[in-house]
């Protein structure tokens, strides 16, 4: 793009809401030099994750730009929540086909809303002309040695989930204008759309899990696919009891079979899945009292893979684990 | 892409050369979890920079993939050199139109060569199907308070450059098969191509500038455009004496006017431009003795903007400052 177009774009991103969304004490030098400078607190490790969002792959072509801005950051921050990190800062690599000012205005406002909600500052970026591509790198910090990884689950642990399952997939059905069940009230539609448009990374719950949970991640590809990641990294078998899976009231408007499929295989929930040593069980009631909708959905055993009980005893899962929406036809 | 395609791609990037290019003592947790973990040394600040490279915008469509892999990382690392940082780690967000194994093989080998040359580990990434887009985020560390920014230049300082100017632009002419001057030997062509394909960020010189230079950056948009950034950030005038600009022997094959234009406005040189308090002048001979081709090209004065002397006294620059190659026709 020409230099004046870059200056124009800068106007949308060099805003106080984006650069100083949080107190910014960690940001020693922000946007405008060759690189940004961050000061980690003593005894902390840096947590780093990169995500790209492409139109038609990760979201529908006609996604509203404000929601897209929010979502791009929320999805990346969810990886910080999964490591139990505290957000520090993010960079944005944005490729845009044209300089569309109303689009930029809405996108940057959505991004700023997420930056404020997750207390994370924009510290750098790069804007180029090209097909729409949103690259976000998030940085966080965690006390040294306390990050939660996928590899610590042990036999006897409880398997827990941090919130309702399947809302992301049901929200997508609502957003895409699919025919909806008669029992789904307007309030339920609103709830599900909001769950899809503006995922809420479980940062506070994540921080509660430091030094307590044994393994964890965020559910982005679907419960079964992500449980498989923990089982494999930890070298254990995970047993999941379908009867214990938590679903929202709105999701109950669908037939039980559709509801169960979304809870097991739906993506985009961005709730935490973690294993908890049995001695820590009393924490669950404390977390629930503090507003975190934690549920026990199974247990950890010697062995390998993910076994599911749908009322007939635990058995290995048949068929595809994860939900692959928006993938191109030739995938 | 389908999951098996992702697994295939992973084979090219999850290599020892990329994940353990350096001793890796800073990498507490690398690729494979929700995020990577880094441990900074005590008393260090984190340096962060993000760059995107798009075919047709930042490099010719038919760029050889090994050179592209090298260049994508080199260009990003040059921003660390400009801050006088030591590289720690990088993430790669790669969007690819198809899974082309020979292309991936060559690209990853070029990337690995750069990772080894600059002692920087791949710690995370994201691969998606889409138009070719290479997003690199580099992380480095610098002793707290010693990073070199653009804003510290003061009247009386010397203006210095860390290596020859114009090679990037001349190298592009060679690479693009433009008609070359008769006096350009094969060895000179090779030299210039190499300068274009594989820029060498001045990391070691940068580290020598810590606590010594007053302002600095890397020349990516051309000397005049980047000098303007220092002048503006520091609130000073920079005087540049054209007779003092260092150019390679290969560049001298072109007519003096073309040579001067490339030295002033050519991009892609990735050498450091910095200001040095006059009391530090003796360092220049030390740096040159150590193999860093540092030259004094001007001086810092009260005032604003960049003034150029081409033999008729210092005058403000007329015309475009920077060299905007590969930009699309409607830019």
UniProtKB/TrEMBL annotation, chains A, B:
Substrate binds at residues 58, 268, 323. Mg(2+) 4 binds at residues 34, 49, 79. SUPFAM superfamilies: PurM C-terminal domain-like (SSF56042), PurM N-terminal domain-like (SSF55326). Mg(2+) 5 binds at residue 221. Residues 32-142 form the PurM-like N-terminal domain. Its EC number is 2.7.4.16. Mg(2+) 1 binds at residues 50-51, 126. Residues 156-305 form the PurM-like C-terminal domain. Gene3D superfamilies: PurM-like C-terminal domain, PurM-like, N-terminal domain. Keywords: ATP-binding, Kinase, Magnesium, Metal-binding, Nucleotide-binding, Thiamine biosynthesis, Transferase. ATP binds at residues 125-126, 150, 220. Mg(2+) 2 binds at residues 51, 79. Catalyzes the ATP-dependent phosphorylation of thiamine-monophosphate (TMP) to form thiamine-pyrophosphate (TPP), the active form of vitamin B1. Belongs to the thiamine-monophosphate kinase family. Reaction mechanism of ThiL seems to utilize a direct, inline transfer of the gamma-phosphate of ATP to TMP rather than a phosphorylated enzyme intermediate. This is Thiamine-monophosphate kinase. It comes from Pseudomonas neustonica. The lineage of its organism: Bacteria, Pseudomonadati, Pseudomonadota, Gammaproteobacteria, Pseudomonadales.
């Amino acid at each position: 793009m020409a230099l004046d177009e870059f200056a124009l774009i800068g106007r949308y991103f060099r805003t106080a809401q984006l650069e100083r969304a949080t107190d910014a004490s960690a940001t020693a030098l922000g946007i405008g030099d060759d690189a940004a400078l961050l000061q980690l607190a003593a005894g902390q490790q840096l947590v780093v994750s990169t995500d790209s969002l492409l139109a038609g792959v990760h979201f529908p072509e006609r996604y509203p730009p404000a929601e897209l801005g929010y979502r791009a950051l929320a999805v990346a921050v969810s990886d910080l929540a999964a490591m139990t990190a505290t957000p520090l800062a993010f960079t944005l690599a944005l490729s845009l086909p044209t300089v569309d000012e109303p689009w930029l205005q809405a996108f940057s406002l959505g991004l700023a809303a997420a930056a404020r909600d997750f207390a994370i500052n924009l510290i750098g970026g790069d804007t180029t002309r090209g097909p729409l591509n949103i690259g976000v790198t998030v940085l966080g910090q965690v006390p040294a040695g306390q990050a939660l990884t996928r590899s610590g689950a042990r036999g006897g642990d409880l398997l827990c989930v941090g919130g309702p399952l399947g809302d992301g997939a049901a929200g997508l059905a609502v957003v895409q204008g699919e025919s909806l069940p008669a029992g789904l009230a307007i309030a339920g539609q609103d709830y599900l759309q909001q769950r899809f448009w503006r995922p809420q990374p479980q940062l506070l719950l994540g921080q509660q899990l430091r030094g307590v949970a044994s393994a964890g991640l965020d559910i982005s590809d679907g419960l079964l696919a992500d449980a498989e990641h923990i089982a494999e990294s930890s070298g254990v078998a995970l047993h999941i009891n379908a009867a214990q899976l938590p679903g929202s009231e709105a999701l109950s408007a669908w037939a039980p079979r559709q509801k169960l499929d979304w809870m097991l295989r739906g993506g985009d929930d961005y709730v935490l899945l973690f294993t908890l040593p049995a001695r820590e069980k009393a924490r669950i009631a404390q977390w629930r009292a503090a507003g975190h909708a934690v549920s026990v959905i199974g247990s950890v055993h010697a062995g390998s893979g993910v076994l599911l009980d749908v009322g007939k005893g635990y058995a290995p899962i048949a068929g595809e684990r994860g939900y692959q929406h928006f993938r191109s036809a030739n995938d």
